[in-house]
């Protein structure tokens, strides 16, 4: 029963949870109700371990299944045991956050996953979809062993179902138009 | 052109720096230095020298997630644990952290070990098996043994122990041990008892021995520890009609054990201890005596070569029972000699030194020592041997030794074959 509840929670999809916004030539998202730094993950962070999360943002145009743009990102979150603050590193471009609160760390990840506006057709109904997964230990080490992050590996990861022990969240937006987005 | 070259070099340097960051700096705590690596439950696990070495290597280095995870995986495999996790805790100063491993043994949380196993072609087998169940900071140990190596007599039986691994602070451990042994004697010992009634022995042969031993260990300043306690021993005589005798003593042990890594190839190890057992009438003892013993062992390993020097000495005042008397000529001292030839009753004075040279798995050793009773003239004995040992570690746990040892004496050469582990 507990497992079932977890699955329902983990796979919850709600159009109220994801919003699109435009910043210059980038299409960003907002997910104010997404809290992936919680529970055992938060405990692991407080214990000084780093925890990677994989993000996959897709934009569909015309219909929910017509994906026209997507972005992958791996964010490694850690907690400074002396400063008692979080820090996030995005692999690939190696962007680093400063010291953040738990909510700040979550927001930093969301702010740093986006698609270019020019990849999105104007004048069509658009849907944003965000999938977040905690990385599995084996995948962590194989990715970290590489000189940089492998997008192909992330695509492969997101192409299969998450494992039962893997935390995962999926959020979808309501349909929107590019022209309606606030900058 | 120059500007372009500088720009390219600068960009290359940035890329290289980024590359370094990616492998080592994903965890914000990687800027801290590891102050110590230990177990959260303060238990002393039996680990191979290579794992201990890996733990030592982490100390003094920057926190490296991957290195700590690899070590956790090795610990899990070696301890046959369900899981081994770790956490970082603040160290003694703001630039350092402690790495604390937690061993999850699953449902059983049970550990079985063989602290000693030896065969001596003159004196037979010795074996000790122990099982320890740990529940939180409480450890319950049950062991069975037959030991014909350590004392003048062979003692066989069971030992049980309860340990409280932390008492408010991890600097204090408590222990309560109960042992029940049955004794067997070599004919040479029985003959010596019959022919030497005026010896300094506090008791003759006894058929069984019961011991109750509460103790407390204090970590004075790592790695210096002090153990204080009491030992209440009851000796049941060979003849059931005779009265049993007690040997109740205050026990104190001061121990220092330190390892140093001088370089990747060079290590040192020092293990030193002093123990005092004072059986006093205040504890209602029938036998009053004081037993002092010191031991020092120093090891130096460089690449595949090692040198070990060990010294033990002891003296007893008063009339101590057989089990307290010193013995030479076993699997650890004067190897090659038969303890029953040297002194079938043991002695109340003893000094022994040993030098071992090792290359890879080969070992060559030289032992010298003397055992005697107060008032008699000590006679030094010597022996040498050659053998093979597993691994390259100093004082290595799990080491296995096969050796042939020769007593150095005039006349015939009479080698002794020794095999065993953890002695």
Task: Write the SSE topology.
The complex is a heterodimer of chains A (183) and B (423).
Chain A: H1 2-10, E1 19-23, E2 26-30, H2 39-46, E3 51-61, E4 67-80, E5 85-90, E6 95-96, H3 102-111, E7 115-116, E8 126-134, H4 137-145, H5 151-158, E9 168-172
Antiparallel strand pairs in A: 1-2, 2-7, 3-4, 3-8, 4-5, 5-6, 8-9
Chain B: H1 2-24, E1 33-39, H2 49-58, H3 65-78, E2 83-90, E3 96-104, E4 110-120, E5 124-135, E6 138-147, E7 154-164, E8 172-184, H4 187-195, E9 206-221, E10 224-237, E11 245-261, E12 266-279, E13 289-302, E14 305-318, H5 339-342, E15 349-359, E16 362-372, E17 381-389, E18 400-408, E19 416-421
Parallel strand pairs in B: 1-3
Antiparallel strand pairs in B: 2-3, 4-5, 4-19, 5-6, 6-7, 7-8, 8-9, 9-10, 10-11, 11-12, 12-13, 13-14, 14-15, 15-16, 16-17, 17-18, 18-19
- Tell how many strands the DSSP assignment of chain B holds: 19
The CATH class of the largest domain in chain B is: Mainly Beta
Oligomer: heterodimer
Q: What is the string of SSEs of chain B from the N terminus onward?
A: HEHHEEEEEEEHEEEEEEHEEEEE
Report the biggest beta sheet of chain A as strand number plus sense, adding barrel if it closes.
Answer: 6 strands, antiparallel
Mean pLDDT of chain A: 80
Q: What is the 3D shape of chain A? A: globular
The main sheet of chain A orders its strands as: 6-5-4-3-8-9
Give the topology string of chain A: H per helix, E per strand.
HEEHEEEEHEEHHE
The CATH topology annotation of the largest domain in chain B reads as Porin
């Amino acid at each position: 029963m507990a497992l079932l509840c977890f699955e329902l929670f983990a796979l919850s999809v709600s159009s109220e949870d994801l919003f699109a916004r435009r910043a210059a030539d980038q299409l960003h998202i907002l997910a104010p109700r997404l809290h992936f730094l919680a529970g055992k993950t938060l405990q692991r962070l407080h214990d000084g371990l780093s925890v990677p999360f994989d993000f996959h943002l897709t934009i569909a145009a015309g219909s929910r299944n017509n994906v026209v743009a997507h972005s992958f990102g791996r964010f490694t979150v850690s907690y400074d045991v002396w400063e008692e603050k979080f820090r996030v590193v995005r692999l690939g471009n190696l962007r680093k956050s400063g010291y953040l609160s738990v909510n700040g760390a979550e927001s930093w990840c969301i702010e740093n996953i986006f698609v270019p506006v020019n990849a999105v057709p104007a004048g069509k109904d658009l849907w944003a979809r965000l999938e977040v997964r905690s990385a599995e230990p084996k995948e962590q080490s194989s990715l970290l062993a590489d000189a940089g992050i492998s997008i192909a590996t992330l695509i492969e990861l997101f192409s299969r179902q998450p494992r039962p022990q893997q935390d995962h969240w999926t959020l979808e937006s309501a349909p929107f138009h590019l022209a309606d987005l606030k900058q | 052109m120059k500007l372009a070259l500088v720009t390219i070099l600068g960009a290359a340097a940035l890329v290289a720096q980024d590359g370094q960051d990616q492998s080592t700096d994903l965890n914000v705590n990687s800027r801290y230095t590891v102050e110590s690596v230990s177990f959260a439950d303060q238990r002393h696990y039996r680990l191979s020298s290579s794992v201990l070495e890996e733990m030592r290597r982490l100390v003094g280095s920057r926190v490296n997630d991957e290195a700590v995870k690899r070590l956790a995986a090795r610990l899990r495999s070696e301890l046959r644990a369900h899981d081994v996790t770790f956490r970082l805790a603040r160290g003694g100063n703001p630039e350092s952290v402690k790495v604390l491993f937690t061993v999850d043994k699953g449902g059983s949380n049970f550990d079985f070990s063989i602290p000693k196993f030896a065969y001596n072609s003159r004196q037979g087998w010795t074996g000790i098996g122990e099982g320890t169940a740990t529940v939180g900071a409480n450890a319950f140990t049950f062991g069975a043994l037959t030991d014909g190596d350590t004392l003048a007599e062979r003692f066989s039986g069971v030992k049980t122990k309860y340990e409280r691994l932390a008492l408010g602070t991890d600097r204090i451990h408590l222990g309560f041990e109960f042992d029940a042994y049955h004794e067997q004697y070599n004919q040479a010992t029985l003959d010596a008892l019959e022919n030497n009634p005026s010896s300094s022995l506090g008791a003759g042969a006894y058929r069984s021995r019961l011991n109750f031993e509460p103790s407390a260990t204090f970590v004075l300043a790592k790695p210096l520890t002090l153990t204080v306690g009491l030992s209440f021993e009851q000796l049941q005589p060979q003849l059931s009609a005779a009265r049993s005798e007690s040997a109740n003593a205050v026990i104190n042990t001061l121990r220092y054990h330190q390892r140093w890594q001088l370089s990747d190839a060079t290590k040192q190890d020092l293990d030193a201890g002093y123990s005092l057992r004072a059986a006093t009438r205040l504890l209602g003892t029938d036998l009053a005596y004081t037993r002092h013993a010191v031991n020092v062992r120093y090891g130096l390993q460089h690449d595949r070569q090692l040198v070990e020097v060990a010294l033990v000495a002891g003296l007893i005042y008063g009339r101590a029972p057989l089990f307290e008397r010193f013995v030479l000529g076993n699997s650890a001292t004067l190897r090659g000699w038969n303890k029953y030839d040297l002194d079938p009753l043991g002695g109340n004075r003893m000094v022994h030194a040993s030098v071992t040279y090792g290359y890879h798995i080969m070992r060559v050793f030289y032992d010298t020592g003397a055992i005697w009773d107060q008032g008699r003239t000590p006679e030094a004995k010597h022996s040498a041997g050659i053998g093979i040992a597993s691994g390259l570690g100093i004082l290595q746990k799990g080491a296995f030794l096969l050796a042939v040892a020769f007593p150095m004496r005039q006349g015939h050469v009479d080698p002794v074959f020794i095999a065993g582990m953890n002695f």
